[in-house]
Amino acid sequence: MILLSGTAIAPYNEPTVNPAKQVYHLAEYCGIKNASQLSTFEVVKKLKEIDAETLIQAADYFHTNGIDPVVVFKIVLENPESKTAFITKHPKELSKTGKYYYVPILTGILENDGSVRTMSMRNNDTEIKRFNTDFNDNLAVLLAVENNDDVLGKIIDYYLKGERNLNNMTFNNFEKVVSDRAFMYPFYDAVLDLLEFSDKSLILYKFDKKVSASFSKVYTSDYIDSSTSGPVHGDDLLELFYFKTKKFNLKTNDSIDNSPFFDYIIKFITDEPMENFDVCTQEEMISKLKQNKICSYRNFGDIVELRDSFRVEDAKFWDKLLKVREN
User: Fold this and answer.
1) Which domains does the chain have, with CATH numbers?
2) Backbone CA torsion sign across 159, 161, 167, 170
3) d(Cα 57, Cα 49) in Å, to the nearest integer?
4) Per residue in 185-228, pLDDT tens?
5) Phi and psi based region of residue 123 (left: phi greater than 0; alpha: psi -120 to 50; beta: remaining)
6) Residue 207 three-state SS
7) Is 177:185 a contact under the CB 8 Å cutoff?
8) How many Cα atoms sit within 13 Å of 324 on the Cβ side?
9) Cross-strand pairs, 300
10) Which of 164, 183, 243, 260 has its CA 20 to 30 A from that of 14?
11) Per the omega criterion (within 30 degrees of 0), is the bond before 186 cis?
């Protein structure tokens, strides 16, 4: 199994609290008449007749803070007695109890995964001013945390040195907290959970390559050369697709001549023996954590090398804040 672009226990995957209520609101936003008087079966049938563009535009009505929450339609926990149920328990419960199939897993992160949300705000005075108007509430919604001193207050103190304002001095740390909350910490948390139940079948990577094609244009409507900004969320996936099109002689404007990352992925999916990879084990992880490091992982940058550096102290901050595990 290859896990790109986050984990199932990230905050943006938190199950919908009241899915029926959301469905009825969606129907209203799509212009379905008397939606509240229809049964759930009937309203879903009507929604299936709505074109995709209308559904996407209707999703904007669920944003309470600009474009937050970014992920509007999340997973739904279904009745375990249903024969068609797909997910019946909270992903965090499944992760903490090991109730899933054990298969070899390759997963990784980028340093600036949070760019999927923050890049559109950088150098956008209008957006920053709007965010600062109700800083606490906006940040709490963005991070999916409680707006109180025990949670949000500690985050602001830890990352922003107590400053409740986005500006040139605080923006880099703002990007860091968004990345850590949505990607870095869930990655760390999931890795530790996986090692509890499925040792010797986990492979880690970090994508740190300056790429010629980047998702930065999607996030900002303007191309930003990653040779100066570094890769952004999704650029690892983009490299796989671009290199594949080049390799199979399809049209592309990309200039990738070789991709060790692509080759590594292919090596993994072609059932290469696990002993040929840098496998993360619980024994190694326990030893490395004592040094504020993690298991050795392959870092795909300008050169490919093994590393074990990680912002463990920042991860432990979230452990303590969210009361996940004892440090």
Assistant:
1) 2-16+74-321 (3.40.50.1820)
2) negative
3) 15
4) 999 999 999 999 887 789 999 999 877 667 777 777 555 555 55
5) left
6) strand
7) no
8) 20
9) 207, 304
10) 164
11) no
